[in-house]
Amino acid sequence: MTAVPETPAPDAGAGPAVHRLAVAGRGRAGIAHAMAIAQHDACTFAGAFAPRADLRRFARGAGFAAPLEGSLSRLRERAPFDALVVCAPFDSRAGVAADALAAGHDVLVDGLPARTLEGAAPIAALPPDVRARLRCATPSLFHPLLRRGASVLASGVLGTPRTVRASVFVSRVFSHGAPPHGDDVLDFAVGDLLVLLDHVLGPIVRVSGAAQRLYGERIDEAHAELVHANGVVTGLDASWSVPGYPRAAVVIEVEGEAGSLIASDDALEVDLADPAGGMPAGVTRVLPADLPDPLPFDAGEGSRALHAFVASLHGAAVGELAGDRSLRALGVIDGMRRAFASGAAEECGA
Predict the structure, then answer these.
(1) Tell me: the pLDDT tens digits for 119-143?
(2) CB atoms within 10 A of CB 252
(3) In whole angstroms, how far apart are CA 288 and each of 14, 263, 284?
(4) Comparing C-alpha atoms, which of 4, 1, 87 is closest to residue 44?
(5) pTM value?
(6) What are phi and psi of 259, to 5 degrees?
(7) What domains, with CATH codes, occur in the chain?
(8) Angle, in degrees to the nearest 10, between helices 28-39 and 302-313
(9) What is the pLDDT of residues 246-266, one digit of tens each?
(10) CB atoms within 10 A of CB 181
């Protein structure tokens, strides 16, 4: 099998520095990020580690010739690297990221760094200047339509938000007697949406609401009211038992003083009373085909986040990757659980 080509290091003085990136985790996400690294002109794939030998064999079978080790320390000995992309399972993700940060590496975590705020304790315990090297990439922040919707909201063309609704639905078929092991809808689907809401509307400081348990003791549906630090209130609905959504479907609806917006994975629709911000009055509708993706298709979804991470290594300010935003989302999830249990509003924060 032909090996996936590694990006060659440039000659001294030939241009911007090429960063050596390693990957923690060799599942599907790890392979996607390794492919994206190998195709990027400004970085090179230094190697990867995964404790499980079968995952290392899987990566080798996929054509990667760089070192594949069972521990971070062993990889560092064999293949020095500048930054680490963490795609490890949730039970080890925060520990791996914290170890790399403490060793002086920049770190990109694929998604949230843990299931809970308590699980992210190894990262939260780091000094602020060390933790500042953490970046987290959740899919909605790099989806072309949702990203365009975030830009529209940030431009202020809608005026002050009056009503905000957000939802996430995904299909997971299971019976009452055989629910999923260890997860519920808050673990599985809500975190990405909370990071997006934090990004476009600001930190969430208080939550209230109720949960429904349809298939046992786990939370299958969540209905919450989220209060942002700027006073905006978002109504959130989440379910993983709605048919027809093989992938998580995220929707944000905002009605402002000067117009409204609906942003989702499928379309972006903006309705303005008057022209503003370079947009015409009336309804403007944007579909995925209207926003061609300039990044390599065959590198998978990791391409956009990896591209932003490399840009940040070269000094660019990439707000979508702010690690503290993901820690705040975990604090909101913990607050939602407390609010569902107490039946009262709960303060939240990381």
Answers:
(1) 999 999 999 999 999 999 988 898 8
(2) 25
(3) 37, 12, 14
(4) 4
(5) 0.88
(6) 165, -175
(7) 19-137 (3.40.50.720), 141-299+322-347 (3.30.360.10)
(8) 50
(9) 778 899 999 999 999 999 989
(10) 6
